[in-house]
Amino acid sequence: MCGITGCVTKQGNVANILYNSLKRLEYRGYDSAGVSTVYQNNLIVKKDAGKIDEIHSRLNFLDLPGNIGIAHTRWATHGAPSQVNAHPHLDCTGKIAVVHNGVLENFLELKQDLEARKHIFKSKTDTEVIPHLIEESLKMGKNFTEAVLEAVRKLRGSYAIAVLYAGEPDKIIVARNESPIVIGLSKEMNLVASDVAAVIEYTNKVVFLENGDLAVVTSDNFQIFRIDSGIPVQRKTTELNWTLEMAAKGGYPHYMLKEIFDQPNVLREALRIQDKYLDLLTEFLDRGREIFLLASGTSHNACIVGSYMFSKLARLTTYPVIASEFIENYGSSIGIDTVILALSQSGETADVLTSLEYARYRAATIIGITNVLGSTLTRIARAYVLQNAGPEIGVAATKTFTSQLMVLALLALRLARKRGKVSQYEIDEFQEELRLVPQLVEKTLELSDEPIKKLSKETARFSSMFFLGRGLSYATALEARLKIMELSYIPCIAYPAGESKHGPISVIEEGYPVFFIAPNDETRKHIIGNIMEMKARGARIYCIGAEGDEEIKQLSDWYLGLPSTHPLLSPIVYVIPFQLLAYYTAVEKGYDPDKPRNLAKSVTVL
Ligand code: M6R
What residue owns the CA closest to ligand 1's atom 11? Predict the structure, then answer.
């Protein structure tokens, strides 16, 4: 996730407005930034790696001349954070500048084709193909609008782009597919941006573009076209009564809620991760004699899901280990045949990094999954995959958890193909179901939000809760427990449901709340038995199960039915109501869910 913005004023300099708007978007990414304006028919660009203010103190964005410009703040997905990889990107003539938020799936083939036509590329980004595609169309005699239309029709993947052309310096062209774009309208200027936060200081009149829209924006007008047909369309103008703070959170009261609702799109981006990175990790995993999945906190819960997936789909045994326990427990036996797959959204967790340094010293192979390009994990690992989830601001991991699960599922699929231990039918079925996950999560959010909000009035009064699941749902139970404990400070227990009778069941007394995770998979019949055991001892049963499962619904005091998924993918869907429950319970208790007490987003101490 990156932030893009642009502005064209009737008169007066644009630099200050671009700088302010860019600062409002910094929460979307902050590893590099850049601004481009047009002055006297020339394009001027300032860009570098670092946070916006660091770059500004070196380059001074405010002295850029001109009344039209675009700007970008980056969260790297292709190419490390560096000056050349920072946006805007230019064509060969230096007259077209493009800023982009999204991931292009077909950039390699487009790049090869453009290189064959003698285009020179400077960066490692996917974005750079766009100005060169536009340059090609301009060369063929098209005007600016036609050239951008022609270029974006060739793109596959997600994009929100803003384009500036020194040859037609009165307009910015924006286009979107899956990544957001809003146009802000005012008497003095028109603005474009990834979200309302960047424009609200100047206007509350906005127009949201829809997927497949392209807009030509001048200082006093705008016109929207459909990308596929080129036909003009109307979109309604909305007047927002948002404050600056509300705008930064996309209209949600907290970042955490915004990040929970971002998950369908984040999962779509995870599905776009390039094959070459997944293939490399698959290769290392397949070669290992013993394989550890190493992480802390929520990332460790993702590792538990990963180990079930690898075992069930690829018949590969792996050991999920809590990072802070790794050296004590396994340190003396690891060696050259050991492969460690480390998961860390920040890539900076000290417990993880210390274990990895130790393992590296003993010649183990280290590979990783992280959300932060340039983090220490990316420097230690022989190979890594980036999650493409964008920065997560809420301390509680939500969208980065489900995107980790998606990456693990993609790896499991590749391992299954490579190892050939399950039928082609099973592999194809899993692949099909993976593609459906973003929309299932969308539906789950719709189904869960209201009932969970209501339930939180009850849970806020609990002094303890129990979470039970079997198989993969055990990991969901662990994650539910972690989310609720860290945000609402209610001590909770999570167990594999089958293990609960070996001790923990003694805590049950009349009315004690027990949450069951009960998807319609092979664990269902045993879960029914576990529900009966708890009911018999007076527990109050809260169950999240499959839509239409009347039998379990009858057994429950409270029931939420979710759409059915492939059994191996159920944690991605079933964790959603628990994220919402953690959020609403914390709010109900008057706590700040974005900043729970005693915690930090990235734990860099041992
Ligand atoms: O950045 P990491 O994934 O390495 O972080 C690991 C944990 O510190 C993190 O998941 C923590 O448990 C979160 N607060 C959970 O919401």
Answer: 297
pLDDT at residue 290, rounded to an integer = 95
Minimum-distance ligand 1 atom for the alpha carbon of 395: 14
Å from CA of 386 to ligand 1 middle: 16
More confident residue, 397 or 373: 397
Q: Is 92 a catalytic residue?
A: no
Q: How many CB atoms within 10 Å of residue 379?
A: 11
Which DSSP string corresponds to 248-285?
A: HTTTSSSHHHHHHHTHHHHHHHHTT--HHHHHHHHHHH
Q: What is the 54 CA–ligand 1 centroid distance (Å)?
A: 27
Tokens of 410: 């993609």
Which of the following is catalytic: 142, 443, 535, 601?
601
Per-residue pLDDT at 438: 97
The pair of three-digit structure tokens given for residue 29, joined into one six-digit string? 């990414």
Task: Tell which one of 255, 343, 345 to mutate to probe ligand 1, the residue whose CB is within 8 A of the most ligand atoms.
Answer: 345
Is-catalytic flag, 7? no
When the pLDDT of each residue in the chain is averaged and rounded to a whole number, the result is 95
Question: Which residues form the pocket of ligand 1, taking CB atoms under 6 Å from any ligand atom?
Answer: 296-299, 344-346, 349, 352, 395-397, 482, 486, 599, 602-603
Percent of the chain's residues with pLDDT above 90: 89
Q: In the prediction, which pLDDT does 125 show? A: 92
Q: What is the pLDDT of residues 119-153, one digit of tens each?
A: 999 999 999 999 999 999 999 999 999 999 999 99
Domain ranges of the chain: 3-251, 266-588
The domains spanning 3-251 and 266-588 adopt the same CATH topology: no
**Domain with residues 266-588, CATH architecture:** 3-Layer(aba) Sandwich (3.40)
Question: How many other C-beta atoms can be found within 10 angstroms of the C-beta atom of residue 360?
Answer: 15
Tokens representing residue 156 in the block:
């596959």
Indicate the fold that domain 3-251 takes in CATH: Glutamine Phosphoribosylpyrophosphate, subunit 1, domain 1 (3.60.20)
